[in-house]
Amino acid sequence: MLRVDINLLFTVINLLILVVALRIFLFKPVHKILEQRQAEANAARDEAQAAIEKADALKAQCAEELDRIEAEKKQILLDAHTKADGEYDEIIADARATAEHIIENAKKEAERGKTEALESAREEIEQLVSEAARKIVEASESSEDSLFDDFLIKAGMYDD
């Protein structure tokens, strides 16, 4: 049946030596290299994950900065609009004040013109009355007094 042969025994011993030698000289170095590569891959993955987290943090920071800038822009525009409204109101108030001043000056000028016209008319009437009186005095003393008095009474400049 089975016979144990010395060749078979040497073959088994050779096989065991070969497995031990392969394990020591081949499998352990290959396994060590695989572990190193796995460690490198894990380190690269960790670095990539850290870079992604950093990028996400920077992205969030940029979003916050953009929101802050947008809010600041809105505030600046609101301030500029408010300032422009104030300046507009001030310009309108100045224009109204200037218009009122011009109107007031025009009214004063018209009143002064009216006063000057009345004064001129009064002086002209006085000259006419004076001239009429002189002519009447020259024509006749007695008739002149009565005519002059009648004229002054009719003109409303003399009360009896």
Number of strands: 0
Largest sheet: none
Which percent band covers the strand fraction? under 5%
Shape: rod-shaped
Mean pLDDT: 86
Oligomer: single chain
Structural class, from secondary structure content?
A: mainly alpha
Helix-residue proportion: over 70%
Q: SSE order, as H and E?
A: HH
* Uncertain segments: none
Distance between the termini: 186 Å
Structure overview:
This protein is mostly helical. The protein has one domain. The chain is built from two helices and no strands. The mean pLDDT is 86.
Task: Describe the SSE topology.
Blueprint: H1 6-139, H2 141-155
Which key phrases capture this entry?
160 residues, 0% strand
Summarize the structure.
The chain is mainly alpha-helical. Helices cover 93% and strands 0% of the residues. The protein has helices spanning 6-139, 141-155.
